[in-house]
Amino acid sequence: MNHLDRLEAQSVYIFREAYRDFKQLGMLWSIGKDSTVLLWLARKAFFGHAPFPLIHIDTSYKIPEMIAYRNEKALEWNLNLIVGQNVDALANKQTYPDGAIDRIACCRALKADALKHTLDGTWPRWRLNHATRQLEPDTNPAAFTGVIVGARADEEGSRSKERYFSPRSQDHDWDVADQPPEFWNQYKTDFAPGTHVRIHPLLDWTELNIWEYIDRENIPIIDTYFAKPGGNQRYRSLGCFPCTTPVESPSQTVKEIIEELRSGKFANIAERSGRAQDKEDGGGLETLRREGYM
Amino acid sequence: MERMNVVIVGHVDHGKSTFTGRLLADTGSLPEGKLDQVQAWCAINSRPFEYAFLLDALKDEQAQGVTIDAARCFFKSDKRHYIIIDAPGHIEFLKNMITGAARAEAAILLIDAHEGVQENSRRHGYMLSMLGIKQVAVLINKMDLANFDEAVFNRIKDDYSQFLTSVGVKPSAWVPVCARDGDNLISPSDRMPWYTGLDVLAVMDAFHKELPAENLPFRLPVQDVYKFTAQGDDRRIVAGTIISGTINEGDEVIFLPSEKRSKIAKIEGFNVDPRSSIGTDMATGFTLTTQIFVKPGEMMCKTGAANSHIGTQFKANIFWLGKTPLVLGKKYKLKLGSARVQMGVKEIINVLNAAELSSEHKAEVGRHEVAEVIFQTQKPIAFDTADEHPLTSRFVIVDGYEIAGGGIVVENRSNRTGYTARLEFDSDWQMTSIDTVKRAQRSGHSAAIAIVFGDHSKELSKAIEIALFDTKISAYRIGASSPLQWERLVEMAYILADSGQVVIAAIAGTAHDVVAVSDPLSRFSIIPIDSDHCNIDSALSAIRGRI
Q: What domain range includes position B517?
């Protein structure tokens, strides 16, 4: 077994534990490379299927190619897609791009709050109808008790302390000081009513591992990660366009990106350096993560 | 390049985070953004920069000044990639230390040269032994506070190595360091010329990768059985991760505790080349040649090999992390391999005080204590003992919603002699004077004991009783789900049969448990009925044929 085989086996094991123990299980799909690898690993675990809904929080400020890619793959791979959004904040123009609030407050409203209320079913959410190929109001408001998320320990400080199975309180709080023990591949799969558990199959993967696996498995990835022929700009990390800047890089293929990460200009530059909100939260993103941010 | 997880453990304030931070800095392993971020934070908060801050990325940790959780960071030497797990040293966070240490293949244990061996130096040493981490290096840190004195180093080394030997840990190296200044971390220190051994980085590179458990007997805890019919997939796939050994298409397998057998038809997978053989640590799935009913939680073994024990009682060494103590008379959930079963404590043999290493007899196991305990499960499960197969001897204990303890099975204490149907009474007990033959002549049928087992034993046994009774047969049904009750159940069945009844005894067990029921005097027919594979008609004809 090489290191990718090991990472894959561990992630598959975690997926199967989650599917066995959580009846209301969903997976966040941000359309980025990590959650697309996550989706691929789900299909590894379940022999070609993704037997639970995929949840996307649409801030309305996503890079437009992301929504097109999402809809295309959801139809092609027969995915059960659920979409949530903070409709009120957008209608009342209470966002950072509208000039109403700062970046952190905007992340909280459009991502953390939208996610929280999409997961617990208290805000309207939409489900992809494969027959009509349209998003339609979801008529089943059940709360998710298990949510699979593509967080990686190497991304930034707070994520390096996550558990594979991380409980969240009724208010979606993350109690960093009192996390469950994890050993011998046994995880917290029992939970009190009203609480839920975040599940992190990618915790041990690094950014480089993600690209190596994309290369090995030939996983189709949204093309905003690649520079256009002759161009020198691409996204390294995908988010909302007002707060995410492309990086200077001519990489047009997965192999070129891997080379760049191994020994090139990105070998020693943090992946989320293009994400403005990280810097405004004391570098830890911890405030947001405690409140439910991914 | 290979990867290795190494955990850093030791008593609080003995310098684990400082060591890790300095090691990352000296090996040039920090991402560019990281150091700036932490230095900026120090500047804003008017704090002098410390290497420990690199790891204590969370704000409340910096405020408290202690590591509360096992943070992971990455670096590489010329030999391999390391994942460094910085475990907390404070007793309050023992569960986090265990979480960190359990992921590791090797451990670095730090002891403050000034303070010497402390309570958690011992406790952590003990936990490493229990968690099965064989490779340990001990660093005597803060040598500057001991004037870089070799005598101090030797004194602590002698003291602590005695303790480690007693718990079965043999360190691969002892290194004197001053982590803050980088002495002996990646190059020899000129402040301790008397030390001629390897520097810490070389010690780490000398750790070897744990060999996969390929040479141990085949074990695969069945994690789930999938049939994605709604997605148009008719395969019935038994899924799980191979703990040890290798398996090939065509191999005959046995599932424990049900003892059902089948053969591997095909090794299944998604986006992978077809293969006819698969080995240790792979997460995989199989279709079988026969449609047998197998449940998640069973242990898949190979037939004809050394297989797991089946039992309901075992002795174990445990550590307890729960906020409330482990007590007798309470229901807990056992998770071992993929099995989940209710269990209780049958006996607390003794409780060890990890700080003083004394053992005492206590009625309960408190938080952070280590104990020897006998457990009783409600249903039979498959397990191994630690000396036979360490990986499948490990389990956790769930109290309410929380994982509250862990342990290793050291001995199968199940009643392997079975449940003997017998009549043992005091000498003044008065017995019937009518023998069984006469009773059979009167009623028109012999007495018998039908033991209905499996998942549907309750429903099937009820139906059998009614059907027999309706055809004028003296039938009497009894049942019990807990193995604790089975001995009594068999005894009652024997008395009822002695009175001429056809007894239908329902148990939630397996064929294995029925085999264990014996009638030493062979007075009655014992008729096993598998409720998972038998309908009412075949059950009735099996009984009618024997009475």
A: 419-544
Rounded Cα distance between B108 and B420, Å, is: 53
How far does chain B reach from its first CA to its final CA, in angstroms? 70
Amino acid in the structure at residue A246 = P
Across the interface, of B233, B240, B403, the residue whose CB is closest to A180 is B403
Residues A211, A212, A217, A220: what is their CA dihedral angle, to the nearest 10 degrees?
Answer: 20
pLDDT per residue over A38-82, tens digit each?
999 999 999 999 999 999 999 888 888 888 899 999 999 889 999
**Count of CB contacts below 8 A, A vs B?**
159
Residues with Cβ < 8 Å from B446, sequence gap 6 or more? B436, B440, B524, B525, B546, B547
Sequence-ordered list of residues with C-beta below 8 angstroms from that of B301, at least 6 positions apart, any chain: B217, B218, B219, B253, B254, B255, B256, B307, B308, B382
User: Closest Cα of chain A to B294: distance in Å?
Assistant: 15
Residues of A in contact with B406 (CB under 8 A): 181, 183-184, 186
Domains assigned to chain A? 3-205+283-290 (3.40.50.620), 207-278 (no CATH)
Across all residues in chain B, what is the average pLDDT? 86
DSSP structure string for B190-232: TT-TT--S--HHHHHHHS-PPPPGGGSPPBEE--EEE--GGGT
Confidence grade of residue B64 (pLDDT, cut at 50, 70, 90): very low
User: Does A89 have pLDDT greater than 70?
Assistant: yes
Q: Measured between CA atoms, how close is B69 to chain A, in angstroms? A: 6
State the complex-level ipTM.
Answer: 0.89
pLDDT at position B91: 66
Answer with the one of B243, B268, B302 that is the final residue of a domain.
B302
Sheet holding A54-57, edge to edge: A134-137, A125-129, A81-84, A54-57, A25-28, A146-148, A196-199, A165-168
Burial label, B443 (beta-carbon count in 10 A; 0-12, 13-18, 19+):
middle
Instruction: For residue B220, give the CATH number of its domain.
Output: 2.40.30.10
Q: Tell me: cis bond preceding A201? Omega within 30 of 0 counts.
A: no
Please tell me the distance from the alpha carbon of residue A190 to that of residue B339, in angstroms, as a whole number. 14
Same domain for B222 and B202, yes or no, is no
Closest residue to B96, CB basis, from A47, A179, A204: A179
Contact at CB, A283 and B281, closer than 8 angstroms = no
**Residue A186 is nearest to which of B235, B268, B403, comparing CB atoms?**
B403
Across the interface, of A43, A182, A269, the residue whose CB is closest to B270 is A43
CA distance A181 to B406: 10
Q: pLDDT (tens digit, 9 = 90+) per residue, B233-260?
A: 899 999 999 999 999 999 999 999 888 8
Nearest residue of chain A to residue B335 (CA atoms): A186
Structure confidence at residue B429 as a pLDDT band (50, 70, 90): low
For residue B201 the two structure tokens come to: 């980085």
Helix, strand, coil in percent for chain B, rounding step 5: 30, 30, 40
The widest CA-to-CA distance across chain A, in whole angstroms, is 55
Q: What is the mean pLDDT of chain A?
A: 86
Domain co-membership, B137 together with B199: yes
Interior/surface letters A166-181, b for 16+ CB within 10 angstroms, e for the rest: bbbeeebebebeebbb
Query: CB–CB of A244/A61 below 8 Å?
Result: no
How many CA atoms lie within 13 Å of B309's alpha carbon, on the beta-carbon side?
23
Distance (Å) from the C-alpha of residue B158 to the closest C-alpha of chain A? Answer: 31
